[in-house]
Specification:
The chain is of the alpha+beta class and about 250 residues long. The protein has six helices and 13 strands. The radius of gyration is 17 Å and the shape is globular.
């Protein structure tokens, strides 16, 4: 378990949102860090949030958003690897298999909605869910098999918005369809592929920078990102923002 300095805590809290008087329960959320190898470099996909957004305006972020519990019922070409599922269902709180599945699928859905990238396999896919219709229209069956659980972070109490965010990664080769115009929600002003070192220097939230550092360490140990790596959790405990391994 690693404790952070007061300056570190203040920086993270400022990057998340301004204080709020009443504590909120964190909502499940998921983010996808999409990677691409370019020679000796590994690039990461990031998008800039619109300046008018209340939450992290103008910052570069990974595609992601809130989890819809109904995502757990979406059919998939392949489920989570057993070791990734084990990591998602262990640790702080109660995370059922269905909840873990919904969280992972929300990362795939949000990546489509915000970046126009459909992760899965070509094939027939049918659903009555409007927010998954893009997969049906482009003939892509979502797949959870490529996802790797990289980190988890819980927004500190007394924030305007609180999220219990799971950060996943996948490779660009796992994308079945790339829409040239980006995602249908237009939540991100621009999408860019940045080398990991440059991504850490961009205008990003401090917690995003920490997650990128975690990813770089994991890649240094395992360039292929095989299933089942250790997963850090960032959260506030007794007024100290700590890092612990799930």
């Amino acid at each position: 378990m690693d404790g952070m300095t007061k300056a570190d805590i203040d920086k993270v809290e400022r990057s998340v949102a301004p204080p709020r008087a009443r504590a909120l329960r964190p909502r499940d959320a998921a983010t996808l860090i999409l990677l691409d190898r370019k020679g000796d470099d590994i690039q990461v996909l990031m998008g800039r949030r619109h300046a008018g957004h209340a939450f992290m305006p103008g910052k570069f972020v990974f595609p992601g958003g809130r989890t819809d519990p109904a995502d757990s019922r979406i059919p998939v070409a392949a489920g989570l690897h057993s070791e990734e599922q084990a990591n998602l269902t262990t640790g702080l709180g109660r995370t059922s298999v269905a909840r873990a599945r919904a969280i992972a699928l929300s990362a795939i859905r949000e990546t489509y909605e915000e970046a126009g990238l459909l992760i899965g396999r070509k094939g027939t896919f049918a659903t009555t869910r409007r927010d998954w219709q893009g997969f049906a229209e482009h003939g892509v069956m979502p797949s959870l098999e490529p996802l790797r659980f990289i980190a988890r972070a819980i927004t500190p109490p007394n924030r305007v918005r609180r999220f219990d965010t799971r950060f996943f990664s996948a490779w660009r080769g796992d994308v079945a369809v790339e829409l040239p115009g980006g995602g249908p929600t237009n939540e991100l002003e621009e999408l860019v592929w940045l080398p990991l070192a440059k991504a850490r220097q961009a205008d990003i939230p401090d917690i995003t920078r920490m997650i990128l550092e975690e990813l770089e360490r994991r890649l240094a140990d395992d360039p292929m990102l095989r299933p089942g790596g250790s997963v850090p959790l960032y959260r506030l405990v007794r007024n100290r923002f700590i890092r612990e391994i799930l």
